[in-house]
Structure formats: structure tokens, C-alpha cells
Design goal:
The chain has one helix spanning 99-102, and strands spanning 4-7, 11-16, 21-27, 48-49, 60-63, 66-69, 82-87, 90-96, 109-118, 121-130, 136-138, 140-142, 145-147, 159-162, 173-174, 177-178, 191-192, 204-206, 213-217, 223-227, 233-237, 244-251, 270-272, 277-287. It is mainly beta. The chain has a single domain (4-287), classed as Beta-galactosidase, Chain A, domain 5 (Distorted Sandwich), CATH 2.70.98. A nine-stranded antiparallel sheet has the order 7-8-9-10-24-20-19-14-17, with no helix packed on it. Strands 4, 12, 13, 18, 21 and 22 form a six-stranded antiparallel sheet that branches. A three-stranded antiparallel sheet has the order 1-2-3, with no helix packed on it. It is globular, with a radius of gyration of 18 Å.
């Protein structure tokens, strides 16, 4: 299936039904704000992370005495979503459980993702619904890779500016799993000036986060204003020296090093009662200084 395009005139986006993945976000002149997906670094652009965020210990989880295998970030990013509605500025996709998926994740669910552009803002809203008879454990995350540099301003001036100060030490990964010790935050007040060296040890992870909004870009030029009101944690990642920066709002994270508990006890796992739903929204607004 071809990519699905939506536009407001000020912004235009393309979504790949495979993974319901945002693959392009451009301004009205055609300037691209997403990663180019260079496979020399990382071919992804904005996968949806469901029903796990990050990596499992030995790529396995245990649920009520049974072990299941699942690769990093879950199966949604490699699943074909169904296009349910398409308007000039809006597209809705869904993914539902099936027999293949139940070999990894034995629950009846529906994952709906709504992409909508209004004026200068793209909103992405994911709704997770439990369609089964038992409580359903899950996590969810966004994983968009924005251009670094954006097509505005100077690369050396690009900063992540949080809406509030972020002094708490951060988490890092060891072989894909959350280390027990914390590390000094690279944020000065509310400003992170990213360096490629920051990512030699994989992602930087904030599991204590004051902000639910930040900006990315050269603050003296046009930049992105990014809000994530429903996700309490944040990962920031890139492959060192790649031309992208992933700004990843999460409700969930990788297994801690050595974790062997039940999936329902995994940090960041939420529980949905039968017929219950939970939504997660992320907005990206193009702003001129």
C-alpha cells in the first residue's frame, strides 16, 4: 500500500500503513523535518512502540507462568495497519489482535492511531483498547526521528529546551536494559545542547520528568514545539553522527538489568480492564521565532 498523505496547507505528512509510521513531515515549501532513514545509521523514522517499550531481558517476558518471546519495542512497528478513514488533513489506522500476534501477546486488543494536521500542528493520538475478558498489561511509546539539523538555523545552535528545569539524574542502558545506577543529567537548567558523544552509550532516559513539553531546533530560528501530555517518561536517542535526533515520549521502558519478574510487575507496564481504553497524544507544532 502506498503512503497516505495528509495536509493543512502549512504542513504535510506522509504515513506508511506498515507500522502506521510517520515517514515525512514537511512545511509548505517542502522542507523536510524528519530523518532521511539512512540505513547506514537507522532506517526507522517514527515507529510506534507497543505493547512494550525498549528491550526485554533475553527478548522474553513471563506472564502467569508462561514465557513469551518479543523483539525490542514490540510488534506494532512491523505490523500492517488498516486504513479506516482518510480526509485531506486526517487519517485513522487500526491494528487488532490476530492468531499470529497472540503467539507473542495473548490478548484481544485494538490499537487506533489518529494523525491530524490543523494549521501548523500535527497531532498523533494513539488509543489502546482491551477487547478481551481479562485485564491487559501493556506499555506504549512514540519514537519520532527529527532531522538534526532541521532545515532552519544552524546545527551547532540546535537545542532541546524543556518547559521546566530537569535536574534529576537520568537512566542509561547496558546491553539494551536499564542500569540500576543513575547518571548525572546533561541538562543545564532546562536546556540540553546535544552532542553526538552523548549517545555513545545509547539513549538518555528520563524516568523522573517535570516537563510535558519541549522545543527542538535553533531557538533563534524556526523550530519544533513538541507536547506529550499523556506520557510520563522520555527517551532521547540517535546513532552517533547520524543526521537525526529521536525525541521519544514513553509510557513504559526497557527491562531493568536482571529483571525476571512477571510482565505485570515490569516498570512502566499499565493495566487495562476489559472494554477499557487509554489514549496517548503527541503534538508537533512548527513555530517561527
Amino acid at each position: 500500500m502506498d503512503n497516505i498523505s495528509i495536509s493543512s496547507g502549512q504542513l504535510q505528512a506522509q504515513i506508511n500503513p506498515m507500522g502506521a509510521e510517520l515517514v515525512s513531515l514537511q512545511d509548505h515549501t517542502g522542507c523536510e523535518m524528519m530523518s532521511d532513514g539512512n540505513p547506514a545509521f537507522w532506517s526507522g523514522r517514527a515507529p510506534l512502540l507497543f505493547p512494550i517499550v525498549g528491550q526485554l531481558n533475553n527478548d522474553q517476558y513471563r506472564l502467569h507462568g508462561t514465557s513469551y518471546t518479543m523483539e525490542k519495542h514490540g510488534f506494532a512497528r512491523h505490523s500492517l495497519f488498516t486504513l479506516r478513514a482518510h480526509e485531506p488533513n486526517k487519517a485513522i489506522f487500526t491494528l487488532c489482535s490476530n492468531e499470529h500476534i497472540k503467539q507473542q501477546y495473548p490478548f484481544d486488543f485494538k490499537l487506533k492511531i489518529i494523525f491530524e494536521i490543523k494549521d501548523d500542528t500535527l497531532s498523533m493520538t494513539a488509543e489502546v483498547s482491551n477487547k478481551g475478558d481479562d485485564a491487559m498489561p501493556f506499555s506504549f511509546g512514540f519514537h519520532p526521528a527529527f532531522a538534526w539539523p532541521l532545515p532552519y538555523g544552524h546545527k551547532a545552535a540546535h537545542k532541546v529546551i524543556f518547559e521546566q528545569d530537569e535536574p534529576v539524574p537520568i537512566r542509561r542502558l547496558s546491553d539494551g536494559l536499564i542500569e540500576k545506577q543513575r547518571h548525572d543529567s546533561p541538562v543545564e537548567g532546562n536546556v540540553l545542547a546535544p552532542l553526538h558523544d552523548h549517545f555513545e552509550d545509547d539513549a538518555m532516559i528520563w524516568d523522573v520528568l517535570n516537563s510535558r513539553r519541549l522545543s527542538w531546533g535553533d531557538p533563534s530560528s524556526t523550530y519544533l514545539d513538541i507536547a506529550f501530555p499523556d506520557t510520563p517518561w522520555l527517551g532521547i536517542w540517535q546513532k552517533p553522527h547520524a543526521q537525526f535526533l529521536c525525541i521519544e515520549p514513553w509510557a513504559g521502558m526497557a527491562d531493568p538489568v536482571g529483571f525476571e519478574g512477571d510482565f505485570t510487575e515490569k516498570p512502566g507496564v499499565m493495566m487495562l480492564a476489559p472494554e477499557e481504553s487509554r489514549s496517548f497524544c503527541m503534538t508537533v507544532r512548527l513555530k517561527e521565532n
